[in-house]
Queue: 4 jobs
Job 1
Amino acid sequence: MLNSCFPARRHALLLLAVFSLTVFAQTASVRVSVRNEQGQPVAAVSVQLNLSGSDSTTNHVTDEQGLALFEQLKPGAYELLVSKTGFEPPQPVKVSVTAGAPVSVELTLVPKIEVREQVEVKATARANPLEQGASPANELQRTQAKEAATRPDTVSDTLPLLPGIVRSDQGELHLYGAGENRSALLVNNADVTDPATGQFGLTVPIDSVQTINVFRTPYLAQFGRFTAGVVAVETRRGGDKWNFELNDPFPEFRFLRGHLRGLREASPRVTFNGPLFKDKLFLSQGIEYGLSKRRVLALSFPNNETVSESLNAYTQLDYLASATHSLAFTLHIAPRKAKWFNLDFFNQRPVTPNFSARDYTGAFTDRLTFGAHLLESLVSYKRAEQDVWPQTRGEMTLTPTQNLGSYFHEQERQARRLEVLETLALAPLKNRAGVHNLKFGLGVTRTENDGAYLARPINIRAANGQLLKRIEFAGGAPYDRQDTELIAFGQDHVTVNPKLAVDVGARFEHQSITGVQRVIPRAGLAWTPFGNTRTVLRAGYGLFYDRVPLNVFAFGNYPEQVVTRFGADGAVVDGPRRFLNITDRVAAHRWLLIKHRYAPGNFAPYSTTWTLEAEHPITKALRVRAGYQSSNSHGLVMLNPQVVAGQNALVLGGGGQSRYRQFETTARVALKDEQEVFVSYVHSRARGDLNEFGKFLGSFPAPIVRPNFRANLPADLPNRLLLWGRLKLPGRVSWAPLVEYRNGFPYFQVNAAQDYVGHPNTDQQRFPNFFALDSRFTHDFEINKPVEKIVGLKLQDKTYVRASLSFFNLTNHFNPTSLRNNTSDPQFGLFFGQNKRRFRVDFDIIF
């Protein structure tokens, strides 16, 4: 009886197996991969799959690799929906499922643009520290910058809010102890620095910015052409609703002794963005007009102001061809001009220059997701034109008390850059070593610079009028220089395990005009030692090479100096000596990673940098980060007076050095209702050679080339404490405080002949310590109801008028901007020029 049951059971099992195979043969799977615009996986994305003509719905959430897998699906037509807070929801995707055939869908999410800017800060989620890698950026959102007490207009205006970045009294930005020309500025991955000088120029309006990321030492190989830091800007695209802003529509008036004396400043800004075609084509437009009359308090009205005028327009068009393909076009137009530029007590209006500049930058970006890979193609073009000329074409005279005559220098130039860059971010690859996020890039850049440089005689006189030295200029010719750069890089961000991530990579660079080829390795790690993401330790080491701006290679066409010295009786005691303009060569490195062409101008400035950093959340609201950086730079381009083969010469060489050390601690306090406070303290030292080429080959060169010294650099600040943020007060009032306390900048002393006295820029030669307390108070007034009563229609969105009252240097602390540093000046050693307490009222309209 039992034996007769086994065949029946076997038949039943066989029927069950056949039925199961039939069912599984009639089902399929859908694999969904979600990544951001940078090609990184996006976790915790809600993914919904709906069967057409049915109420059947399946929901999943993407994992840390940005993946969601739907299995055992019935054949049919499905609709795929994805969503995540802070990102634009892409269009629904139609998915056709066939029995036995798996389907893969790749989607790219882009940040969402909200109508009210305050929401943007709240919606920004903090990334996993391991995902940030070994060198996270100091990130600044547009809304954070716009609410600051300084009320910045452009990207460069926001940078001093970050630790390690300061602006001098002459308006120059210094990043981590170095000038702008040693840092990189990227907008949507495109290089936008001046091809001739490496300077930033007029940067993108703050209203067109999404985020500003500043890297001290990015160990990712995709970043190059710098030895100090990287500023990477991402601009905002239009959202799915129209947004309009009118900022600072009213000018700031000038009042003197209780009387109105015209305009002091005007900076109206108009911003609007939204969809031109729903879910397809988006526009973002920012336009800023600037009129500024910067006053010099040591001079009397009306001859105490520099007048500058500018137009800053940024346009962005985004086209979403599909859920996996997007295109973007940007255009930045920035003409500007200034009269009586660099006006101060020692260089009054007749001896100052005028200048006019025109910058045009266009870029096209194509992003294509295939499989789980992201291919990004970038083509950008920049044209920078600049003219500098004096008030009158005469000779310049330098005296111990002030300079007279006319500005000695006249220049016109046109620089161009065409850049093509391809990058490929591969889908995460998992093996026994961990999860790999690989990225590769290949690029070519063509730059050109042509122009002419003209200089007129300089007379150096004693306080009694006696002629001590005369500098004349001979020769010179127009110049035209071209360069081609090639770059290639590969990098890997490896998540070894839940506690450890490693960044490794290498970069190849070749600059044809220098004839230098180099391979640049970098490595860093991020470690969470306590088994969670609360505490993270980071460390890294990298080699960073800088490109050499084209102005360096125009030096041979500059006029040559002819110097004559005179005695007390007016007789010639030395000279005339003609100083040849010589571009030197550097010795070839005996290193496998770099190859030199042994020819003049074979410069290769570089820095070796290591960092160590710890970050930890003290409480839910307070997060603290502390780190140390050590950078040694070599091969910097310098200009020095020398004797070469018995001939006097100004030698442009590549033997300059600098050293930068920084200890930084930063705290962020995030309170409820979008309130936050940033506090940073930086202890740093910046030492190096003073005769850096940018002082003499830029738009406004120094009139005298003194012997080089290795000393404290102009931006050396041993101590700087900075506090800023946004708080809410009773009565719906917002308060944006800014407190800065730091050491004064170093200075040098000269004698009547304008030669150094002693060692320049010592610790004993500093301006007084700087302290400033600024505050901005704002209040939003909703005006929907009054407008609705007037027009008789109900408005769909709320409209606000934001009134602001700003105070600067509330304590009226003595922060001098000028010093009598000539030992022959009767008032030698006197600090003067005080920016006293002042206030400002402005309005914004937001709807």
Note: The chain has seven helices and 50 strands.
Job 2
Amino acid sequence: LSEARVAAGAQAWRAPAVNSFSAWLAQLRDQALLNGTIDAVPISASQARLLWQQVIDTDVFVGEPRVHTLAERAWRSIHEFCLQHPKDWPEPLLSEDSRRFREWVARFENLCQQQGVIDEWRFAAHLPEWIADGRIDLPAAVELNGFELPPTPLQRRIFQALEQAGVSVDGRAGSESTEPRSTQAESIGPASDIAPQAPTLYRFTEPDDELRAAARWARALLEDQPGQAIAIVVPDLAGRLTRVERIFRQVFDPPGFALQAGGSDAWHSSLGMPLARWSLVADALLLLGLNPAEISQPVAGRILGSPWLAGESVEAESRARASAGLMRWSPFYITGFELTAACKKAGAHRLAAGLDAWRSKFTRHRSLAWPSEWVARFQTELEALGFGRGRALDSREFQVLGRWHELLEEVAALDVVAGAPVQRATALSLLSERAAGATFRERNPGCPVEILGVEEALGSCFDALWITTLDRETWPGAARREPLIPGPVQAEVPAASSDGKLQRARLELAGLLRAASQAFGSFSTGSEDQQREHTRLLPGHEFMKAEIDPPIEPLVLARIDDDCYAPVLAAGETRGGTGVLSDQSACPFRAFATRRLGAREFTAARPGLDAAARGNLVHAALELFWRGLKDRTALLALTPDELKQRIHEAADQALGRFTEQHRLLLKPPARRLELLPAYALAMRPPPAALAFGLIRPDGLKFDGLCETDTGIPGVTELAAAHGAWKDAGDWSVLLAQWQASLNDLAFSFQEGRAEVDPRDAQACRNCHLHALCRIGERRSKIETETPT
């Protein structure tokens, strides 16, 4: 259009309004309200959804949990395809579901009338008559672009009403005229004037192979001719988005893929994740859902690690210390006050101040309020926490933040249909549901490769195009009827019948093939048991060899000499007791990393007491029990009731000590205690038996070895032992072997032996240092280099 204006000698012109059909209808609704054309207030889809929830949630419906979504979709289909109104449905056609839906429609319409509102589909249904009556401001001309599929009956009625009102409606896919159109013309959608052509078809075995080949084709084409516009169409893109992006990231940016980086600048996907899954929005919803009375450790860890809270850059280390301290000493559930105290103790004073301010505001936000008031409250709480003032946002994150603010405005606008003030949980649920249902994708910065669904690709123009998943199951695909609408009523809906679905698939495929001068296609056959075939809409194809593998430069890694020795330790420099010997025995590198470098494992807290806490609790209870009992005689002198009372008092006092600092400490199960035999070697004279008391929720018992039978259940005589002790010889030899092994371990640790040399697979299975020692990469390399 700009080139035509310049060719016609124009130096300036007014750009025509270009909108999607739905956006154009939204503009007409706004104009109708401002001009007083309609008495009712137009409401958005989000507002209408709340009305559907109000009329449906009063009923008990067994089946689909999100019934209001089905109701909204059925209501849209009724108006889009000009179907019979539910009140006029013949009774013999009704199922229990459709009968219930008819009742909901009646309630919905009554509620709209009571509140003086009109939803988008009832407005669209009345639009033709309002156009005919001259009640709608109309442009001089409308150009329909990108309508590769026939318009719906409602669209046809609107277009006919426009023409009858004197509006020029140009329905051509493209225009051959170079004359500029009227400055008042409105265009709906892009145009395509490329004749359809048969694509070159490739056959693969697995869906991932097909996607990988498409990505390699696009990369090779882009490297050969950088200025091209390339499209890859994935019909089921919404269901495979994560997989598709992973494969394209691997092909287009191997180093970035290894680092789990974001999308490459070379390609862009038209679909995105739900807004609630983007990190910034997920953290905002998490913060709004906090309860100062009880915060779990995983949630506390996410708060301390959030990059969106003020002071993150200067307090990152102190917040990490606070998180480590909570995992090491605190129970699974803590209070908001305890979280604040942990921040102060670790030096994260800015976050601590934010948590204090948040708790103060939270306690004042207890009363019922309108959705708009809750939005204001939510914003003040997030502001108190410093949300959004952490690290600098990149372009994508800035767009996410903008969409988040738009979502808050949507929820605030629910006052129109809410009917009454709501509780905090209800307001947060409204916000969370809409965040989960809103798909967000950042704007395309101009990437040459676009990954699109079928609907997004129709009506566009590209230099080259690849259509994936061209199998019989996808093209034409199965018919889908609306479960709340009787079958005969929706007989004319294309997607509801096999013939309609077939015709639509043919039109979609023809439209896609018109979108580019070069067209390629592919499908995957799948497993041998259920092999797929190519769609019959593309008969008589000879398949190309499925090898599209342009050379990709491998990532070159730097190599360094392997030095497995650390500096020798002087006597007395090491702490850790027998744990040092245990680590050195399992793997020298584990001992070096944990005892010298301080590579500590911070296991996430779990509900209940861990093994260490339970052991300390038992020790404390035993200490309290024996306090005041001088000897065995005093113990035997207690009556059964006195003994029972003393045990209960000791346990209660021990538990009281544990809950003084963290009142949410105690909840069920614990883990098994682990002990080592090294303590026995330090005893003089050497012991004749070793026994460990195992204290677990499922029972109390001893486990150990002895030189001769001691009569203690669970303590096995060495001669009768099995497993590791089966061939151990006599007791003194076993103790001597232990002593020699421990001496060797101590000497190797002192000498700095730090090679990655695990004792067995079990040592690696229970180790947290895999990312540091890279044992997996070493084993893979050994297996690769070992000749077969």
Note: The chain has a mean pLDDT of 80.
Job 3
Amino acid sequence: MKTDSLAARIAPILIALGLTACARPQPVEEARIEPGISQALAQQRAAKLSDIRYTLHLAIPAEQEADIPGDMSVEFTLKDTEQPLQLDFRESADHLRAVSVNGRDSQYRFESEHLVIPARELRAGANRIDIRFIAGNSSLNRNPDYLYTLFVPDRARTALPLFDQPDLKATWKLRLDLPADWTAMGNGAIDTVTETAGGKTVQFQRSDPIPSYLFAFVAGEFQSVTRTVDGREMTMLHREPDPERLQRNIDAIFELHAAALKWLEDYTGIPYPFAKFGFALIPAFQYGGMEHVGAIDYRADSLLLDEAPTETELLARATVIAHETAHMWFGDLVTMRWFDDVWTKEVFANFMAAKIVNPSFPEVNHALNFLVSHYPGAYSVDRTAGANPIRQQLPNLNEAGQLYGAIIYDKAPIMMRQLEAILGEDAFRDGLREYLENHAFGNASWPELIAVLDRRTPTDLAAWSEVWVNTAGRPEFTLASAPGQLTLEQRDPAGKGRLWPQRMDVMALAPGHIDTAPLRIDSAATPLDPNNAGADLLFNADGFGYGLFPASLATLGHWSELGELPRAALLVNLYEQMLEATGPAPMAYFEQLEQFAASEQNQLVLDLALYYLNRIYWTLLPDTQRNAQAKRLEDTLWQGMLASPEPGMRKLFFEAFSNVAVTPAAVQQLLEVWSGEREIDNLPLSERNRIQLSQLLAIKLPQQADAILQQQIAQTRNPDEVRRQQFLLPSLSPEQSVRDAFFESLKDERNRQTESWVLDALGNLHNPLRRQQSERYLLPSLELLQEIQVTGDIFFPKNWLTASLANYSSASAAKTVEDFLAARPDYNAQLRMKLLQAADPLLRARKIREKYGD
């Protein structure tokens, strides 16, 4: 019999928040108007508002800096008029030009990011608010000849006055006045296009019901391609100037979307639920993709791959397409009630994407791809002092962006595989179908899904979820042996006595013989076959379990006998043990990785091994050891490239060689490749590859930097890439004063608008070869973090930290982070976690180098 454990746990929380049925919300007149959207305000509005319809008109000028005037109507049904009504608008009061309510001028007030409508102007039942305003710019992503909206999680209110919360779904009717040579895409299909004296007006059909963060449009100088695949019309917008690159990719892009849609319709039993399907490829887009209904946005380079892409790149493209398409059902059709459950839409998108790409890549080991795609990322957070649970509390939506990260994108899919294993694939799928059907075009929470799944298994899923979903961290496993006994012991590193029930495979490796056995872990001590006491054991050999597993370098002696997946699992286990300073010494592991990388034939395993090699080389080896290894490593990677007949493998080796090359001979080889003086068979270099190479050379050959960079800009055909390179020039300068001035310029929000460019620039400033000169930027970078959280998009704070800290290992850099936090005991809790996550490699590197000698 199952206890009602979930209800028992949340009842005290509901009482504390005043959210039980008998609690009466405090009238807004009596409460302070808070910035952001508090959970209490969101719940009060959700209880009173329904049938919301927006009609929006924006006049977008060609000039990037000119104002965008707008007018909109908000129609809705209001349950009662006991309280004034707050609309969200995070702009200055002068952006509001006129407001009328139900046909009369409003005596509204503007306070703490809210347009407050007096209760006396409202009526129970149907209402209409008309607003003339100047749109805010911070989330319109304006560029010289295009713009695009990006409103997740609460940034619609930075552009428009509206109800910006996920459980107030609404329909949108959008009209855009545009320059004559611009085109546009929105949530709804284009209804009419009317030529005007100054340009054109595009009227869109009213959208399906969507939350505010999914309202979107793209407008600008784009090319449009429309195709019908499997009976469904799709439109793609792009700005790619290279016709060969476009033609090389376009068929796959449409076919992968069609395959994802068909798979999801079959799996969910629900036909594609929206009126239209389209997507836009945007240069320097902040994320890989964003799931706007009918108008998905992608980073152009994520889909338009260069010639001879690696297997990792092909899988990444298919995965991001499958991920964003899966969101049409998981997140768009059924949306979380509050952003504390934002992870639910992301986990299902990632989890389904892993299933969707399988049929399109029958030759790929998908269990291996799952392991290398998710485990390093999940462990990179869960091993840290800043680890966060999958599901986090969120008192105000203005902090929702801080919930995103590797835990929801990488750990949550691992958790979901364990959950599917508990129920079985059919019961799991049937539960998801019931969940989607029950909440279609509405909202739901994780406990509601757990309740649906709970009926399909004797396991207490609420108790299971409490550990896996509601708490942070990973279990640590150790081997214990006694005469006639061998036990795998699970320990909670936080000392809370938690247990992570899970299943995995364990391999017993003996000379000439491998024995694989399933392992079900339901307690603190799990008996193993005592006959394996003398064998080398490989835990999580199937990439299904989760935790810090025992591993030793001796197991690498069986490398040639292992399959692809066990090899990758062993690399991960050893790397995690090395970072705990309980496993192999960095130099010993480095030498083994170098040896096996030279002969590895699987691209996914090779990519993982090369990543670990790079991290150890730059952050864990003392300078003397690294300098002693440089020539040998360069030769290994160069020869590995030449020995690989496959272009994708050659590309992996060449990129690794480019990153580590420091000796004059190796850098000269790079220069000759970039200039075209040296050509390498089966290694086609695209314009993007040459741009990347030119920037590495600018750092490695500072006296030639200006000439190399100017020549590359002159040879670049893509105008968007030219703008990016010009932005990056000062970050690549050989002059310290120029780099200092550039870093100072990043303190101005206007210079951080194109976030992907800023992150590239930080990578240049903090290149490992410049660490001694750039460590001075660390403290001011940390001091900017709170402002960046307010002004930037959801991934920017963590990415800012990672780009700043990732390449350091010195005691002084570690002390900068520790002193910063020690001086701020009341620092924002979410930002503290992000900082501890990003600083973890630095803090561990300092300890490891102290242990083994620097």
Note: The longest strand covers residues 49-59.
Job 4
Amino acid sequence: MQRWQAGQKRRSSRRRQRAALVAAFVVVSVSLGSISAVAAPSGTGSISGHVVDGSGNPLSGICVNVDGGPGLQTDGSGAYTITALDTGAYKVGFSDCNASPQYVSQWYLGRPSSGAADPIPVTDGVDTPLADVTLVLGATVSGTVRGPGGGGLTGICVDANVPRNGNFDWIAGTTTGPGGTYTLGQLPATDIRIHFRDCGAGPFLDQWYLGQTDPNSSTPIVLAAGASQAGVDAQLTRGMVVSGRVTDGSGHPIAGINVNVNPTDSGGSAWGQTDSTGRYTTSPIAPGSYRVQFQDSSSNPVWAAQFWNGQPSRNLATILTLSGSDGPVRGNVNATLAPAASIAGTVTAPGGGPAANVCVTALVDTPDGADWLGNATTAGDGTYSIGGIPALTVKVYFQDCNNVGPYVDKFWKDGKDYDGATPLTLRAGVRRSGVDAQLTTAAVITGVVTDNGGHPLGGICAQATTATFFGGMARTGSDGRYSISLGKPGSYRVQFVDCNDTPHFAGEWWDNQPTASTARIVTVGSGQTMSHVDAILASGATGSISGRVVNVNGAAMTTSCIVAYIPNSYAKFAPVSADGSYAVTGLPSGTYALAFLGCGHDDPSPVVQDPRSSVTSYQAVWWNGAPIDLPRGDGGPDPIAQGAHLLTVSPGQDLTGYDWCFGCSAITITGITPGRGSLTVAFTTSLLPASGAPGAIAPTAARSYTVTCTSSTGGVTGVATGPSSPITVTGLTPGATYTCQVAASDGSVTVASSPVSDAAVSASSSGSDPAAETVSFPAASPSTASPSTGGMARTGANSSDQARVGLASLLLGIILILLTRARRSRAIS
């Protein structure tokens, strides 16, 4: 089990820039002007090259910086040479340092952030020449920020952000001058989202252009290189603050406690810290529903973290509701903290030596599943300590999160899964030591990924799956090498997908195959390493998956979010618009699970609230209809085990019509009778009531049904439509093997679909006895169908759209990366 894709979640309202549903986590770019300081290199290696404009003319005065190391400016010929570099891999940034800068900053080669930069290998004593770096003219955005009365606001921060895998990266910023005016220059010609925030201690609420509280709903600004757009204005509103006092059990004040106020849904957060009297006042926040967390800010916490009203974890947190009637200050949000418990131990490798850089996580049971409490990473001697934990009964999970073994993940003591873990009871103020683990060696698949020219490719996702479960994933380094650790031996198919921020290469399955069904099998045993599972990727455009999501009355399910997911750490997200449409764009070619989830501020949710009824909700589903289950323990979802139908996106392909309807009809295929070049499909339908109050939503009936039969052995696809069961599909290839699917339509809207038939059947050749070849399927009883989900399916989806891999159990936690990834990498929030 690994983390959901994305980065670490930020806490202050200034940095709450992530998408409402993303599980979790914004990775903010490191700007060229804020490179972190580390020990300066002192070797004799070097990096050299030239910087030019779009016409190939040399650019002087361009700052060239090694991330965490030395830098210089280009000379009159655009040349640079960075010296004194040790052997290693470096990231290099380029920015216009002239008096009147015009060009967009970038990281080598053409990347928008240091996190996306291509690492450059350097050898001591050797110069590494780089390809010419071409800088492009920046676009400019300007406007005025006003207050509630219409007057200009001085000192308001204006930030430019770009989308990145469902999150948003900061790329530039400024503050408003007299009269509230601002200008942002050197912006790339791409999707820019402008964020306005009160960067002082003032009362104004954050806002995204135009007037949105969430970046996903904001209006994008896309300009040509060198172009300008004026009138990007904002009018900010005043917010309210939360205040209170934090004390110990004897009523003594506690200073230095961080107070985080995080929305239960989308929107901004607030933050404060207690003073010497134990009192705090947060930054401003809008009316809404929030979770309030109190956390000891010291490196060795004395006090146990908790949520408002003494609750120990996020799942159990009491919700704080703020309304305009509360006035500008909501007071008396107090907390009494108890002394913290802690867990310590040593993790060893199979031979008994220390296992460093292993992630250790403490989890607690809640009615909504296991919840994250704290985590640590083992030191060089294999020791670890998790502090600031409430006095609870927990379970401890050991994960080879840095692939240092490689080791098989496990729970204490010797539990292979959460239910098999030994509970550990903690006492307030007591350090529980001896919570040790000895890890076992994992099975491993390794290889190298290159382009057609033999150059290594970094940032490529290599994923191993079987017919029934997800195995593991790893990303290639700058040398193109990867290593996938597998907890189970077995026969795997390996997929390669360009997971970089700006994908350039077409994905494939090993060995050079377009889908999982034709992939070459890799068999690996426990503790065995299977090497040379290599890939050569060709260039390829990105694609998309789009459709509509509605309820049974046709209302747009704007409370739902869509995730295209490659287990276990790559996900692309999209919201549902007011008309019910969604589009997951920028997808590198590959095979994905598609999830229809509830939108949550911290994590995607397995429950989707109906936007028109507060008493009605639905269970989240994978395409096409398999419920998304919340697994226990720490880890991302396994759509293969849960029964998702996987979708293959070819280079540049836009898959359309992948719709869903929550609360609509259920369809079950009960039998398929072969005929001469035909198949007759029998099916039953039932209306699925929405959960919640009976009759809150009245399901609608279908007007027509469409049967699509697709061959896996080269037969011609057949489609037929009729008003009821059975329906005969003609024009099929005699002797070919087929699977079929039934979709129901209400006018122009598809309101439900059956799963693809489990058994493959053949259209008879002439002379056979069709009646003797009927294949029957057990009808699903209404009680076995999810009472809260229905389906709205893409009619006529073929096998190139749906690589259907077998299935059977796991969650959503990224989706997700989709649900507990953040809980391991963030402080308890």
Note: The radius of gyration is 28 Å.
